[in-house]
Amino acid sequence: MALKIKSIRGTRDVTPAESYKWQYVERVALEVARTYGIEELRTPTIEKTELFVRSVGETTDVVQKEMYTFDKGRESITLRPEGTAGTVRAVVETGLLAESLPVKVCYVIPCFRHENPQAGRLREFHQFGIESFGGSSPTADAEVIGVANDIFRRLGLNGLELRINSIGCPECRPVYNKALVAYYESHYTELCETCKERLRKNPLRLLDCKVESCARLTKDAPIILDHLCGDCAVHFEGLKQRLQVTEIPFVVDPYIVRGLDYYTKTVFEFVTDQIGAQGTVCGGGRYDLLTEYMGGPSTPALGFAMGLERLLMVMESAGCAFPDRPKCDLWLGSMGDTENIKALELAAKLRAEGFYVLCDTMGRSVKAQMKYANKIGARYSCIIGGDELEKGAVTVKDMDTGEGESIPLTADGVKAFLYSHMLDPDSYRLGE
Ligand code: HAM
Questions:
Q1: 248, 292, 322, 347: which has the fewest Cβ within 10 Å?
Q2: Alpha carbon nearest to ligand 1 atom 16, residue
Q3: Residues with CB under 6 A from ligand 1
Q4: Residue 151 and residue 320: Cα distance in Å, rounded?
Q5: CATH 3.30.930.10 in the chain, residues?
Q6: In what helix (H) or strand (E) does residue 105 lie, and over which residues does it extend?
Q7: What is the side-by-side order of every strand in the sheet holding 393-398?
């Protein structure tokens, strides 16, 4: 008996009606990255579970609740919930970091988190991210933030707000944590159960709690910016100055703490109120200690990742322009088998030139072929019959105006027509 199996909750199919938009966004992101000397690094979708436990952090929601983990043989394996951990592992393992610094890489990857699905929150989602290794100066921070900002600008997305914060370093964070713990302990009974736990394990995460009674406490909590050590404070001031000179608007938000444990100093997010509760389109920050902690050379680093589903949602809601979905340049209709073979031969030669050309593969009548050509919005069409083959000429019809023009029925003849009536095929490919 036939059985229709449905997709898994929190996963999505991207049909051709959308996939050309994804291709466009990814192309723009990779193209902007190129202007910063950032090249793509591809890493596996599966990694040892230990990699994420150690880097993302044992007390985080991602590690505690959201990882897709399974055992194969004696190894515990996890579908990556994010891209930074695998990138750090790979740049150490492949020896990239041993080459001259900085090393700057980017990725377009599927990630997996077992979260409660809702708009903008999926179990399989996609990230474009960059990671920059070597630079400890705030110029590296401004550059990384500049990449994200340039991508949004190139996509015509101007309404995102950049929020920045510093969460300090091992010198100043413990001092701040003490102040934070003292404050929340004095309000212990008002805390949710999770926050009572966080108070012991990871006090910074209390600032992020969405439960109303906890969120109310946050506004009077001590803020880390008042507790930064000299080095972290200078770094943060340096970043603000660089964002100003590069004309990247920002707000300082002392409550941004991020949900992953590896961050030090700068953290940032690009947010919107246009797509509901899941409004963080991009998040990132510095992780100066992670590479050494993961067995590599001590290397300051930072990066970001943007969620592509959320990015596309916000682009749609902001009415951003997308390139047109590719349209058929020429429909090569045919009346019989010999003519259909001629159409196929011409199509092959025109495609080699970059044109989008179709001929009938369904054995349809001429009438049905033309109906189809119309439906898919072909720009030009012609019908090859016995007469056309004999005379070596065919009439090409403009599908909008209905006007026809007789041209030689040869690859060169059709090519010359297409070149003189349309742009160079290179210039109207996706994303141009
Ligand atoms: P993250 O904030 O966990 O950071 O994720 C980055 C972005 O991925 C989010 O801002 C959001 O747009 C998207 N995202 C996260 N979870 C989901 C989900 N369940 N469904 C849809 N989109 C989601 C990181 O992953 C860090 N690795 C970023 C980074 C790179 N920090 C330094 N380098």
A1: 292
A2: 121
A3: 82-84, 113, 115, 120-122, 125, 127, 129, 131, 259-260, 280-285, 303-307, 309-310
A4: 13
A5: 16-172+228-317
A6: strand 103-112
A7: 357-359, 330-334, 380-384, 393-398, 404-408
Expressed in angstroms and rounded, the spacing between residue 309 Cα and the centre of ligand 1 is 11
Return the CATH number of 16-172+228-317, one of 3.30.300.30, 1.10.150.670, 3.20.20.70, 3.30.930.10.
Answer: 3.30.930.10
Where in the chain are all domains bearing CATH 3.40.50.800? Answer: 330-418
d(CA 15, CA 364): 26
Q: What sign does the dihedral 297-298-304-305 (CA atoms) show?
A: positive
CATH of 330-418, one of 3.40.50.2300, 3.40.395.10, 3.20.20.70, 3.40.50.800: 3.40.50.800
Pairing type for strands 301-307 and 330-334 reads unpaired
Q: Which atom of ligand 1 is nearest to the CA of 284?
A: 31
Hey, CA dihedral for 236, 241, 243, 244, is it positive or negative? positive
Residue 305 alpha carbon to ligand 1 centre in Å = 6
Report CA(127)–ligand 1 centroid distance (Å): 7
What lies within 8 Å, CB to CB, of 227 at 6+ separation is 168, 172, 175, 176, 179
pLDDT tens track for 192-240: 999 998 898 889 989 988 899 999 999 899 999 999 999 999 999 999 9
Measure 60 CA to ligand 1 centroid, in angstroms.
13
Q: Which atom of ligand 1 is nearest to the CA of 123?
A: 19
DSSP conformation letters of 151-167: HHHHTT---PEEEEEE-
**pLDDT tens, residue by residue, 66-92:** 999 999 888 999 999 999 999 999 999
Query: For residue 156, is it left (φ>0), alpha (ψ between -120 and 50) or beta?
Result: left
And the tokens for 41? 């690094």
Average pLDDT for 322-336: 95
Write the CA distances from 430 to 23, 72, 268, integer angstroms: 8, 41, 32
> Quick check: pTM over 0.90?
yes
Q: Which atom of ligand 1 is nearest to the CA of 84?
A: 27
